[in-house]
Amino acid sequence: MADAEAWVLQLFEKAAYDFHPNAHACRLKLSLVVMSCGQKYPWRIQDEYRQYLAKLNLVSAACRLSADEEMYLLEHIREGADLADELEDNSKDELDYKPQYLD
Prior knowledge:
The protein is mainly α. It has five helices and no strands. The longest helix is centred in the N-terminal third of the chain and has 16 residues, at 21-36.
């Protein structure tokens, strides 16, 4: 990965703490692009998708995922692309130290 590409991914990580309904949709769209490049994205797609669905009635029409985008995303989730993260999170008995959603 080029330095410029790594820099852009670092900027995406800063956007992970925006909990506006459109922000979840935009991160999911960015995830689709990053996935196709074979890179790791700085947020958990399952969490973003859950929040997107929970706030779907507040997501603007311009930001909503198309049917094809949702199908591709769900297929990616079903294939277990983030399974290691899921298993790691479920094995913790300690309090989670990551920021929690405040919505």
